[in-house]
Amino acid sequence: MWALRRASNPLRNLSSQSGATTSDSKVDDGFFDLDSPLETDKIGTFVDKEEDESKLDSVEVAHCSIGSSDSKSQANGEKKPKRTSLASLPFKVVMEAPRHSVNDALNKWVKEGNSLGRNEISMTLSNLRKRMFYGKALQFLEWLEASKRLDFVEQDYASRLDLVAKVHGLHKAEKYVNMIPESFRGEIIYRTLLANYASMGSVKKSEEVLNKIRDHGLPVTTFTCDQLLLLYKRVDWEKIVDVLMMMEEENIQPSPFTYRLLIDAKGRTNDITGMKQIVVKMKAEGVELDLQPKL
Hints:
The protein is mainly alpha-helical. 51% of the residues lie in helices and 0% in strands. It folds into two domains: 1-36 and 203-295, no CATH class; 44-54 and 84-168, no CATH class. The two termini are 16 Å apart.
């Protein structure tokens, strides 16, 4: 995420006509993360997806919501650890085990003396998510918590919450939120729930979660605002202006996604001048525009 310096408010005067209605109801999904982008899908369905095993070893291992120690090591001047082969991770164990015996397979793997630190956990979850094996990713997290192999922090609970929503639906996800220890029910938890509601186009539920964030005295972040913008872009363009005004009033810094959405909104109303004004503002803020990803 680029840093945005506020010499002046970049949202001021950019929201005019952004609430204009449009006949184009087909919108590409494009924004969901906890810290880094995570994929979205149709929630409420078991979505394990079989893929060509020959592709697995060549995939780049990405950072997952459960943090690894790589960034800290590099910050301290330590050498970056060598990339771990997928075959040496619990990823291979989870992938090869039938659903009913994942726990037994993992217990056996650990008893054989294999390492299971946050780095291995992060890469395993990241690769399961990439392949949309959400059911098995959830089983892995449930095993970690039940076997006390991982001391859960808020991001870990948020990762499990997201998987519960994907595998079992949002009703179960709501119930899971109430099971999370209160001390870990922070902004990350609620923004994860909001993002899942937004991906389903549920305005009422998304706004209820926003109210909970405020009721608990938690900060309304750029991520939350972008989720609302994406939601309203799909279902109620007039509310986009409300979100932009809230961001201005509460000094919430826009993200590159916020700018892309504004440019898209201006483009849909053929407001070429407005599009150019936004690009000028972005350059003034030191933000580079990547027009490749679709909104």
